[in-house]
Write a structure and sequence with these properties.
With 100 residues, the chain is an all-alpha fold. The longest helix is centred in the middle third of the chain and has 83 residues. It contains one helix and no strands. Helix content is 83%, strand content 0%.
Length: 100
């Protein structure tokens, strides 16, 4: 038994395992950064669309306000005409009533 062969116990190459782990971590980090860039791009696009929508809404509200101002002007004219007609009707009614 003096001539026994010693078989070395297999142990993993620690340096290779650490390098592989680091490589995977870097790969995952690169993927995360790429996904973050895509998310930021989509967010910016959504903000641009929102800005366009809000600007359109502001323009619509401005047009509506102008329209309401026109209606107010027309109602003012109609109110004045109604007052004149009321005064004329009152004068005609007063003139048609016999004096007592």
């Amino acid at each position: 038994m003096s001539q026994a062969t010693i078989i070395p116990f297999p142990c993993p190459d620690v340096k290779f395992a650490e390098r592989e782990r680091l490589r995977r971590a870097m790969f995952d980090l690169q993927n995360a950064v790429a996904e973050q860039k895509e998310a930021m791009s989509q967010w910016r696009f959504a903000m641009a669309e929102l800005s366009i929508g809000v600007a359109g809404l502001g323009q619509s509200l401005s047009c509506y306000q102008d329209s309401l101002a026109g209606v107010d002007t027309q109602l003012g004219g109609l109110r004045a005409e109604a007052i004149r007609l009321q005064a004329t009707a009152g004068a005609i009614t007063d003139a048609a009533q016999p004096s007592a």
